[in-house]
Backbone:
């Protein structure tokens, strides 16, 4: 439960990055569109008689109206409150009665709902989910308590956690113009003012078959899913007034930025940095794959440059690593993080982090690093086949941010063709501090000690 | 950084996780494999699967830490995959990644557990590296210091984390003087004091065939697995040298402990005595807990605390059946101004369920949910293998997974009413961390 929103998104991206085209090919992923524009993906997994059913709406916190941050996530909560046809939680109650499990999630680019259950319940799941695409009924008596639930969620995830508060401020400083600078959960002062009308406005504007993707993974066939989808989702009219997803884009970035969050609750200082980089959706062909490999060589696990140099060799840090959030509709983030050993200041640590990056840019990468990383990423794709929910998430997230099924399936081949010069060019182009924000997490007592030493 | 994938889960995670009951994927066939050397594993064959998953565990986790060295088991777990035999840490980590082999270890209160995941084509190398990590861990000085500094860094962070403080205080109070009263991850003082000899001694005492259970899922024939078991585990000592642990019960029931921390949201843990896994009434208790605060969105605590009153994002309860004690625990978090009200609601719900018991309708729905959702726990190779290990440790029998839903069905309304009283009427120890309003400390 310690998840920061940003951390959670990163994990999703990593997960998304590790499923292979070979795996997808093996699973014979099918996809088709209904006449109302709903995209449907079917991922067969016949090992057990269960299914995972997900719907992904192509709307997230980055699509929220000004001053209404948090409404995408608040609506996600309210979607469990019932519809005209299935009032007061009948969906959840019915699901629980047959032993299904459910949840939902919101990111800056999409909002998803899912259930897992025995395969014979698939039609019921799809009928309930189709019903709440347009049938949501909200009263103030359910909206009020749920707003307080969301505020408690914000307390748990952010207000009680200084590292998460710093993460919000780093993102806000990184995106000068784009709405990715807002926390997915929203800014607390704006969440507090959200109401029933805000939620319904957002719902009516974005929840529609031609703005959604249904993913079914499990013990099913394309034919069965198509048949049920036609009878359930197929009855919903497409919306003619959906606008293209156009968010304000980033200007040229030119300033090295640093933010410091100092709080007595910080017992262990740390630093984090985000660079503005292309996503799979915005990058030129092959460029995002090169950044993916770069991020792994720089910060993925104990063989990475950052860990090996700062933790294993010099010992200046107790932990260090990096990540790439490639699954995004617009320009996205490559992140690095490090925790100093006692007696080392964050400024000293940052200098050493920069030295690791400078060395990588100056000397390039080794062929062993390149091959190890590619094999690691592609093998993870094979492992992912073992988890139908992971497969469903991977396809859903990719399609909700502009990828096609074919692109997702070909991902391992694209990783395989990444070259050392491409990785090195990516490092030179994107690991530029003028495109970055560095966040220091500290407390005053620590600072005073550092000055004395 | 690697958190569960969903960006904003609607409920807390832990809800149904603690009871490691296995599942019934109806078609699942479990084979008992015994090696020539006498090592047993339970196997679910997965023909054509490209990967092999091993889960295994040794009885005796953190409960075997020396009295003043809490954290030894955790440190051993962190170091077993950091170099073994002639291979130093750096080259060990490289060899793992070069073949995409995943080996990991973790310490719990009663077990030291491990996992292996490998592509079938690389399994030879994987089994060699696993054997080395278990039978010839290096514990090189530099690696010990590196892992120590990581652990201390995490422990420093925990000193101001309300969840960690609440949990540590609860366990330290309930089990003062018992191994369960010491934190699995240790403290800043104890971890600083651990020596290489402590680690080597622990590994020699605990990593033994006699304390081991193994679950395997993959495309591997029983005869092949038998040979692998001897190859990987065969040179471990036959019997562990475990310290005796006294069975115990939580103390301090009836106390409320408030720990001051300047955070906006107060974290609340309540807990009391539970019911042992081997108790014939365990399944009835499991159902009672499900109705009170178990996994679905329909529990009483979820409805009363979250849905009706909007007091918390996460609220749940769980049974914690350990080897030497049994617990029932519930956790929530709420803004400090409404901490007293929230704790009152939680305690009232527990009291009411103890006194009145579940309704017939609740029992029916709980059974239906628990039976239907059982198969969902067997969704990945790793999860299946973990279930195989848990069922072995709990000594439930190789047919347990097939019988389990019948055991759920056999529970009657009279059973759950009787057990609700036994489970929930024994008094609660409460720890609250934050600046809670309307919560007075007492006892403790």
Residues:
């Amino acid at each position: 439960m310690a998840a920061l929103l940003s951390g959670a998104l990163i994990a999703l991206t990593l997960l998304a990055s590790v499923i292979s085209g070979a795996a997808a090919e093996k699973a014979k992923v099918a996809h088709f569109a209904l006449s109302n524009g709903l995209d449907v993906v079917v991922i067969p997994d016949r090992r057990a008689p269960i299914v995972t059913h997900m719907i992904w709406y192509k709307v997230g916190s980055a699509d929220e109206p000004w001053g209404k941050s948090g409404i995408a996530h608040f609506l996600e909560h309210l979607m469990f409150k019932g519809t005209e046809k299935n009032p007061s939680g009948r969906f959840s109650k019915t699901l629980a009665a047959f032993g299904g499990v459910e949840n939902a999630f919101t990111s800056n680019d999409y909002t998803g709902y899912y259930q897992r259950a025995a395969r014979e319940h698939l039609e019921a799941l799809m009928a309930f989910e189709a019903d709440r695409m347009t049938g949501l009924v909200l009263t103030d008596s359910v909206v009020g308590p749920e707003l307080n639930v969301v505020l408690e969620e914000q307390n748990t995830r952010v207000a009680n956690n200084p590292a998460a508060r710093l993460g919000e401020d780093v993102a806000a400083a990184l995106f000068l113009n784009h709405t990715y600078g807002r926390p997915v959960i929203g800014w607390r002062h704006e969440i507090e003012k959200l109401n029933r009308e805000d939620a319904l406005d957002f719902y009516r504007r974005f929840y529609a078959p031609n703005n959604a993707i249904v993913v079914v993974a499990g013990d099913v066939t394309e034919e069965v899913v198509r048949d049920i989808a036609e009878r359930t989702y197929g009855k919903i009219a497409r919306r003619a007034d959906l606008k293209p997803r156009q968010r304000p884009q980033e200007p040229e970035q030119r300033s090295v930025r640093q933010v410091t969050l100092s709080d007595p609750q910080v017992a262990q200082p740390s630093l984090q940095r985000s660079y503005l980089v292309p996503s799979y959706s915005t990058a030129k062909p092959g460029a995002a794959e090169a950044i993916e490999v770069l991020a792994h060589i720089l910060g993925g696990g104990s063989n990475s440059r950052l860990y090996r140099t700062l933790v294993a060799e010099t010992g200046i840090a107790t932990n260090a690593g990096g990540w790439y959030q490639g699954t995004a509709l617009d320009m996205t983030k490559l992140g690095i993080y490090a925790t100093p050993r006692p007696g080392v200041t964050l400024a000293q640590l940052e200098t050493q982090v920069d030295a690791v990056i400078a060395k990588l840019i100056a000397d390039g990468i080794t062929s062993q690093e390149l091959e190890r990383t590619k094999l690691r990423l592609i093998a993870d794709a094979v492992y992912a086949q073992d988890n139908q929910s992971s497969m469903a998430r991977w396809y859903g997230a990719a399609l909700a941010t502009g990828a096609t099924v074919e692109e997702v399936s070909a991902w391992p081949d694209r990783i395989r063709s990444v070259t050392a010069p491409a990785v090195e060019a990516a490092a030179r182009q994107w690991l530029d501090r003028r495109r970055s924000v560095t966040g220091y997490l500290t407390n005053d007592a620590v600072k005073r000690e550092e000055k004395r030493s | 950084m690697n958190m569960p994938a969903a960006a904003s889960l609607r409920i807390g995670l832990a809800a149904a996780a603690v009871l490691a009951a296995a599942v019934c994927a109806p078609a699942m066939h479990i084979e008992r494999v015994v090696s020539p050397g006498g090592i047993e594993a339970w196997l679910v064959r997965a023909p054509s699967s490209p990967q092999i998953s091993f889960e295994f565990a040794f009885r005796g986790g953190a409960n075997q830490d020396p009295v003043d060295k809490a954290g030894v088991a955790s440190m051993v777990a962190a170091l077993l995959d950091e170099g073994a035999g002639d291979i130093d840490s750096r080259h060990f980590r490289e060899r793992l990644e070069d073949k995409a082999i995943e080996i990991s270890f973790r310490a719990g209160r009663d077990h030291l557990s491990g996992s292996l995941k490998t592509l079938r084509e690389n399994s030879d190398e994987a089994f060699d590296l696993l054997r080395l990590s278990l039978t010839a861990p290096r514990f090189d000085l530099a690696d010990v210091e590196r892992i120590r500094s990581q652990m201390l860094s995490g422990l420093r962070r925990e000193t101001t984390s309300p969840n960690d403080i609440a949990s540590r205080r609860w366990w330290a109070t309930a089990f003062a003087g018992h191994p369960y009263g010491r934190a699995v991850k240790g403290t800043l003082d104890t971890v600083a004091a651990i020596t290489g000899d402590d680690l080597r001694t622990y590994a020699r005492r605990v990593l033994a065939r006699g304390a081991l259970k193994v679950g395997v899922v993959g495309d591997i024939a029983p005869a092949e697995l038998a040979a692998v078991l001897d190859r990987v585990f065969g040179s471990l000592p036959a019997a562990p040298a475990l310290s005796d642990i006294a069975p115990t019960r939580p103390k301090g029931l009836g106390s409320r402990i408030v720990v001051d921390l300047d955070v906006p949201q107060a974290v609340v843990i309540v807990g009391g005595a539970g019911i042992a896994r081997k108790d014939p009434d365990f399944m009835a208790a499991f159902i009672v807990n499900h109705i009170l605060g178990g996994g679905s969105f329909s529990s009483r605590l979820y409805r009363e605390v979250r849905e009706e009153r909007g007091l918390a994002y996460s609220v749940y309860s769980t049974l914690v059946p350990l080897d030497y004690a049994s617990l029932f625990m519930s956790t929530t978090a709420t803004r400090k101004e409404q901490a007293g009200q929230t704790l009152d609601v939680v305690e009232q719900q527990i009291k009411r369920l103890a006194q009145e018991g579940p309704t017939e309708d609740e029992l029916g729905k709980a059974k239906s949910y628990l039976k239907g959702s059982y198969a969902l726990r067997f969704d990945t190779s790793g999860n299946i293998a973990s279930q195989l290990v848990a069922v072995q440790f709990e000594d439930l029998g190789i047919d347990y997974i097939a019988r389990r839903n019948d055991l759920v069905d056999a529970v009657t309304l009279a059973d759950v009413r009787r057990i609700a009283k036994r489970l929930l009427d024994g008094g609660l120890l409460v720890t609250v961390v934050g600046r809670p309003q309307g919560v007075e400390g007492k006892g403790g």
The first strand of chain A starts at residue 30 and ends at 33. Confidence is low (pLDDT under 50) at residues 1-25, 446-453 of chain A. The first helix of chain A runs from residue 5 to 16.
